[in-house]
Amino acid sequence: MVGMNLWLLGALDEAERELRGVLQGGVAYGPTAPIHLFCFAGTLADRGALEEAYEVASRTTAVWQARGLRELEGPGRRVLADLLCRRGEFAAAERTARTALALLTVQPLEHMAATATLAAALLAQGRAAEALVAAEEAMHQYEALGAFGFRGAYARLVHVEALEATGDHAGACRALSVARDRLQSQAAKIGDLALRRRFLEDLPENARTLALARQWGA
User: Fold this and answer.
1) 107: Cβ–Cβ under 8 A, 6 or more apart, which residues?
2) Higher local confidence (pLDDT), 52 or 24
3) Which of 93, 96, 208 is closest to 153 using CA atoms?
């Protein structure tokens, strides 16, 4: 949990040290194992160590699958889909996200996260209308549950970009304004100014959200 919150704050070096220690004994199991994999792989990817992140996620998910641990495999495949998106392998990311969704029928927060990742993969393939349907489904799930299964700023950003890609610039600006205001409200609660800057600048979706807001005057 310490490592997870360091990652969510953008303290990537510190987060990696904490999260890497959990793997000293090998592949993690148990109810928090998917959270650990998501946070560790995400931290590595945000630091630029994308290949290591993908290797760790692939190896871990393969072990979970071999043991028949569907409740772990689903989240693992969702993490792999996100990493495939980051690698630019968008068709593979789509396939993996759809496989994850089929495994996550009783894990609503993970299902929501996989839906947002699917939207990103579709958007990157130029399938804007399909991407918007998936992004809006993720947002509707959020409104129903009141929580995201991962960093919500990512889902909001995908929704904004899907709206823009389908020609709804006014809708994209409205959604972007909400996303920007939420980020600024969160940042204002971080008392350490250096850590506040890292939260806004070192987490890719936060930096992209703020850059778009400046660009569009949202």
Assistant:
1) 71, 74, 75, 149
2) 52
3) 208
Is residue 182 exposed (0-12), middle (13-18) or buried (19+ Cβ within 10 Å)? middle
SS3 content of the chain, % helix, strand, coil (to 5): 80, 0, 20
* Domain boundary assignment for the chain: 2-216
Q: How far apart are CA 147 and CA 198, in angstroms?
A: 23
Whose tokens are 């303290």? That residue is: 11
Task: Tell me the per-residue pLDDT of 38-92, one tens digit each, with 9 for 90 and over.
Answer: 999 999 999 999 999 999 999 999 999 999 998 999 999 999 999 999 999 999 9
Q: Is CATH 1.25.40.10 the right assignment for the domain spanning 2-216?
A: yes
